[in-house]
């Protein structure tokens, strides 16, 4: 079997249902068709989704998989009556936890209440702004406020990693490139001097770097394998000399890089 | 009861375990202490985590909650033997799905295999780069390649939303500010003319806007309530005139804004 429709139903954004549902589905050799139905927060909307699921079930001759993160009891009951195979992602874990904690759950919808007054949320936005302003060594202003400073050659993955650290974890991540002038001088960029302890390096295989750079500036010296080899070798030698921990981004996702950095640097201000 | 230690254990980054675990815990009036243990991919590391859990259980006199997303059977068994209350987030859903699909799961670790050769992943990085280059109306180059173009007054939430759309969904999101000169002229910024169909507006309550701007430039005309009122009123009138859909970011999280935009704009290139 190869195809199956999968519904992600939520009274919030459905991001949790979908992210987690995808991890589960990744355990199977199937190619599901995704149907997202966020903001299902009324009985009417629940009925409408059920009609849709039943229609798909009949059309495809296979019952759709339904991952749901709903808190509203009425809506829940309605969805449960559909012709799909329903997984109640909240209740499955909330019920045993009610026993464990010896308390009732509060049926709170979504992870976000009112963002305008949410301190944690505002910190996260501030971290994104900080990371944007300190992308690519743009500014040494307030660098003392950074939780972490990523360093590495151009196109080694610093920018996406900085943004991810800010967005997912509320971590203020600056990034500063290591460029040929730094290698000629033989020193770290001077703006980094006071912050060496917060620095974390990214490196990358020269072949992969050359590929990435060639997409940007095809045939340039900048993208040539020879130059990429030189820059990577120089950058690694510099980081080793300066005692900066680093990892290779070549075969790692942003998420894996970010998790490793947080595990090693352990900034105090981690947000959850 | 108020405190309880919660372990998030994964053979990957643990982001799924933690994001999902947080949604579950948000249903209870407790303030848990988070302990992240990513990359638990060997028997030795599993034993080490078990020792840690048991130590915490004894110290706190309450058994810790353990959310785990492990695929390795040996490691799984070891963690199950700990003194915590263990929730196996994968198996709970994978087992009934094995029955449903009539196939065995493949025990794949994590959502990311080798990113260097993963097309989807590279599209996501490309979307982040695109959104960075098209932040704040910086460039009208390649704007035809944008999936969505966010418009709105300065500090209405365009930048974080663009970056989130790129990072989470692989959507190329440009953003262009509406500034006093546009209001004087009475037209959308000319670069937007050919792309009106892809435009989506963000607006914000003038009071909240004034607060946000005052953090940046305290006491400025730019941040004054009077000016914020004027800009917001002008921007909304312009979007209404031009037939651009919009929403207010005041009480919404980035995630909620992004989900609404995707539901309404439905770009073809959504990545999962």
From TrEMBL, chains A, B:
Catalytic activity: [pyruvate, water dikinase]-phosphate + phosphate + H(+) = [pyruvate, water dikinase] + diphosphate; [pyruvate, water dikinase] + ADP = [pyruvate, water dikinase]-phosphate + AMP + H(+)
GO molecular function: ADP binding; ATP binding; phosphotransferase activity, phosphate group as acceptor; protein serine/threonine kinase activity
Signal peptide: none
Binding sites annotated in the UniProt record for ADP: 152-159
EC number: 2.7.11.33, 2.7.4.28
Tagged with keyword Transcription: no
Record family assignment: Belongs to the pyruvate, phosphate/water dikinase regulatory protein family. PSRP subfamily.
NCBIfam families, sorted: PRK05339.1
General function of this protein: Bifunctional serine/threonine kinase and phosphorylase involved in the regulation of the phosphoenolpyruvate synthase (PEPS) by catalyzing its phosphorylation/dephosphorylation.
Listed name of the protein: Putative phosphoenolpyruvate synthase regulatory protein
Lineage: Bacteria, Pseudomonadati, Pseudomonadota, Betaproteobacteria, Burkholderiales
């Amino acid at each position: 079997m190869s195809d199956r429709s999968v519904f992600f139903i939520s009274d919030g954004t459905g991001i949790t249902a979908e992210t987690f549902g995808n991890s589960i589905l990744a355990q199977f050799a199937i190619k599901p068709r995704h149907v997202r139905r966020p903001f299902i927060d009324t009985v009417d909307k629940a009925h409408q989704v059920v009609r849709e699921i039943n229609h798909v079930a009949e059309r495809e001759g296979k019952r759709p998989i339904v991952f749901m993160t709903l808190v509203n009891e009425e809506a829940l009951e309605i969805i449960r009556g559909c012709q799909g195979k329903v997984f109640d992602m909240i209740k499955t874990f909330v019920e045993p936890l009610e026993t464990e904690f010896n308390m009732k759950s509060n049926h709170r919808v979504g992870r976000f209440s009112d963002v305008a007054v949410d301190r944690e949320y505002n910190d996260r936005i501030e971290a994104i702004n900080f990371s944007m302003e300190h992308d690519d060594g743009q500014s040494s202003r307030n660098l003392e406020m950074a939780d972490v400073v990523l360093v590495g050659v151009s196109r080694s993955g610093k920018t996406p990693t900085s943004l991810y650290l800010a967005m997912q974890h509320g971590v203020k991540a600056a990034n500063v490139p290591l460029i040929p002038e730094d290698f000629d001088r033989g020193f770290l960029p001077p703006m980094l001097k006071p912050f060496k302890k917060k620095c974390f390096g990214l490196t990358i295989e020269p072949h992969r770097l050359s590929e990435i750079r060639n997409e940007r500036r095809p045939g340039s010296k900048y993208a040539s394998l020879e130059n990429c080899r030189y820059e990577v070798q120089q950058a690694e030698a510099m980081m080793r000399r300066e005692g900066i921990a680093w990892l290779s981004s070549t075969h790692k996702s942003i998420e894996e890089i970010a998790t490793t950095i947080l595990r090693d640097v352990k900034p105090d201000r981690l947000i959850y």
